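hey m, so remember when u said the C-alpha cells were messed up on ur end? i reran from scratch. heres the input so u can diff it against urs
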Amino acid sequence: MKRVVVCLSVLTLFGLSVFSQKKQIDQARAYIKSGKDFDKAEKLMTDLLKDSANRQNIKIYDTWYDAVLNQYMAANEKLYLKQKYDTAAFYKLICHLQEVAFKQDSLDCLPDRKGRVRPSFRKDHGEVLHAIRPNIYYGGTWHVHKGNYSSAYDYFDAYIEGARQPLYTAYNYDKTDSLLTTAAYWATYCAYRTKDARRMLKHVPLAERDSAYIEYGMQNEAMAYQILGDTVRYVGMLRKGFDRYPQHPYFFPRLADYYSSKGRQDSVLVIANRGVEINDSNTLFLMGRSIALLNLERYDECIETSQRIIELNDTLPEPYLNIATCYLNKALVVESENEPRKNRRRLEQLYQQARPYMEDYRRLQPDAKQRWGVGLYRIYLHLNMGKQFEEIDRLMRK
C-alpha cells in the first residue's frame, strides 16, 4: 500500500511540473503575441531550462527562439527607422539568435523511437538565419573599427564556426560563402592584436585558402609561432613565406635577422642574392646583401652593392656607413702589416675614400654619434685634419 502511495506522489509531482511548464510557456507566448516584453518571455524559458528535467522539451526551445527573434526584429526596425538603439546590442542579438537556433536544432534532430531523424524547424529557421547571418560578420567589422579586437574575434569565430553547423547544411557555405575566408583573415588579425597565438592559429588554414589573404595568413601564422616561442616552426614559416612570396616585406628581413643572429652570414647572402635576382631594384634585398658582404669581409663587393643602393635611394643612411666601414676595415688590414712608410700612400687613399661616406652618414643620422664618431675620429686623425679632429675629439670626450 505504501508503494502505491509513493507512485501516486511521483505522478502528482510530475503532473505539477508539466502544468508549471505549460503555464510559463503560455505566459511567454502571451508576451510574444502582445508585441512587447520579449525579454520577459525569454527569461521565462531560460529559467525553465535551468532545470535539467526540462531540457528535452522542444516547445521551450521553440518559444525561446521566437522570443529572441522578436527582440532582433524590434531592434532591426528601430535601426531601419533611424531610432536610437545600441548597435553593439543589436549585433549581439544576432549571435544569440543563432546560438539558440543551434540548440533547438540539436534537440530537434534527435532520432525518434524508430531511429528516424525528422527535424521540424530546420528549414524555416535556416531560411531566417541565412538571410540575417551576414550581420554576424558585420558585427565583427564594427568592433574592429571600434578597436574592440577581442569582441570582434568572437563575431568572426561565430560566423565561421556557425557555417559548419547542421542547421545550414542546405546552403553549403564551405563552397558558396566568399566571406568565410575574409572572416578567417580578420579573426586571425584580431587574435594578433590581442596577442592570443592559439586563436591566431585556429583560422589560419581557412584564411590561407584565399589568394588575396594567403601572404598575410602565412605572416600571422609565423607571428603566432613567435609568440608561442616555437622557433622551429617560426623559422620554418619564414622560409616557406620567403620561398613563395619573396617580395612580401615581412619574411625576408626576419629570416635574414635570424640567420645573422646565428652567425650564418652565408645564409643571409644566399637569400639576399635570390631576392636581388627577382628584383634588382629592391633596396631591402640589396641592403641584406650589403650587410652580409660586410660581415663576410668581402669589402669590394659590399662597396659595389652599397653604391647601387645609393643610386636607387640616396636618403638611406646605412649604405654610406657600410661603404665607409669597408674602407676603414681595409685600412686596418693594411695597418696590420706594420709597414707605415710603404703603406702611407695607400692608407691615405683609403681614409680619403672613407671620409665623404662617413660624413654623409653623419649628416643623415646626426644622433648616431656612437656609430660615426669613432670612424670620423680615425679618419681626421690619419688625414691630419686638425680642425675637424678637434671637434670630433670634443664630442667623443663628452
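this time it looks ok to me. Residues 2-34 form the longest helix (33 residues). if urs says something different then somethings off w ur setup not the seq
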